[in-house]
Amino acid sequence: MRSSVRPGLLEAETLASGRNDVHMRHNGAVIDTSDVDAFSPFITLSRDEWAALADSTPLPLTEADIARVRGLGDPIDLNEVDRVYRPLSRLLDLYSEATGHLHAATSQFLGERASRTPFVIGVAGSVAVGKSTTARLLRELMARWPGSPHVALVTTDGFLYPNAELSRRGLLERKGFPESYDRRALRQFIADVKSGKREVHAPVYSHLSYDIVPGEKITVSHPDILIVEGLNVLQPAASREPGVAALAVSDFFDVSIYVDAQQEDVRRWYIERFLSLRATAFAQPDSYFHAYSTLADAQATERAGQIWDAINAPNLARNIAPTRSRATIILSKAGDHRVESVRLRKL
Hints:
Helices cover about 35% and strands about 20% of the residues. The protein is an alpha/beta fold. It has a single domain (about 10-345), classed as Rossmann fold. It starts with 10 loop residues before the first strand and ends with a strand.
C-alpha cells in the first residue's frame, strides 16, 4: 500500500516563534532543523527525525530476510531496518516515481513512445563500513514496492582487473584504488543498462580466490531498478586531453548514497571482520588468505591493522571520502553501526 506522502516528503514551513528558524513538517510532526546551515547543499536529520518519516505500513521484511542479507560484522537488526532503511526505501520510491513522471512528460513533449529506462542507484563508502548490507537491504525492500519491480544489484568488484593484470601493472597491492578497476568496462556496462539494452553482462569476482572468475558472467536483464555498489562509484571522471569529453560512472546514476562513519570506527570494524573471517572464509583450503586462518588473535589484529593502514586507509582518505559530498544521500553511522543521522541533498 502506498503512503499518502507526496513527492517532496518534507514540507518546509516557518513557525511563528519570532525567529527565522526553519522547521520541517511531516504528517503533522514538526522537525526542527534550525541548526542546519542555510547555505549547505544538504538537509541534516537526526536518527529520530528520520525515523519519524517512516511509512505507517508494516515493515515488509522479517528477521530471516535480514539475517540473509546482513554482512559479516554488521549487527543490523529489524529495528534498524524499520527506523532507517524503510524511510530510505520510501524516499527512493518517491524519487523513482518522480523520475517516471518526468520521463512521461518529456516523451509526450517530444511526441515519442520510448520506454522508460532503469532507475539507477549508486551506493558508495569505505571497506567494512556496511555499504554491501545497505545495498542488499535496499534491493529486498524495493523489490516489495507496489508492482514488485525487478531490482538488480551489481558490485563493482567484478570490474577489478584480474590479479595477473594487476601484477603486470604493479597494482596488486593497490587493489580497490580507482586505477585497479577497468573503469571503461564499468561505464559501458552501466551505460548499456541505462540505455535500455535487453541483456547486459558483468564479470564475476570471487572473494574466496580474491580474483575474477574466468568465464563467469552475471546477466542483468532490463531491470526496473539497478543498484551499483562499490568503493569508487562516486569518483569524478578521469581527466583527459583538453576538449575531450569524459564520463564518470556516477553520470548514469539517478540517486547516489554514501555510507559514512568515523575512520577509527571503520578501522575497528575491519579488524573485527578480519578476525571473524579466520574461522570462515580464510579457513577454506582454496582461500587466497588461507595462511591467515591460523594466526592467533594478537597476530591477526596486528596484520589486519597493517593492511588497513597501508591500503584501505590511504584509499579512503585520498579517493573515497572526498566523493562523499557528491552523494544525494549520506548515511552517517555511529560506532555501534547504527545510522545516527541522514543528510539529504536539497533539490
